[in-house]
Amino acid sequence: MTVADAERNLVRTVERVAEERERVTLTSEGKPVAAIVPAEDLELLEALEDRLDVEEARRALAEDGPSVAWEKVKAELGL
User: 6 near 26, Cβ under 8 Å?
Assistant: First the structure.
């Protein structure tokens, strides 16, 4: 669906997404630019991102190498 079509039909589009759990890809000049998805899909995506962040943090912590105190990092960043 084009962004312009979505703008003209926003209420109906949101209803379709919410009630029918439809995913709508918005396009501009024929290219995908955004999506409207059910809230449950967004929650799942965010949970997956959180899980990937935790796994990446665990890998970083398992690496051998020098560590830097959090207080020192904050001071260097001016926080």
Answer: yes
Total structural domains within the chain: 1
Q: Taking 90 as the threshold, does the pLDDT of residue 66 lie above it?
A: no
Q: Rounded to 5 degrees, what are φ and ψ at 32?
A: -65, 135
Look at residue 44 and tell me if it is in a domain. no
Contact in structure between 23 and 38 (CB atoms under 8 Å): yes
List the domain range (segments joined by +) for residue 18. Answer: 3-37
pLDDT digits (tens, 9 = 90+) for 8-51: 999 999 999 999 999 999 999 999 999 999 999 999 999 999 99
Domain assignment of residue 11, yes or no: yes
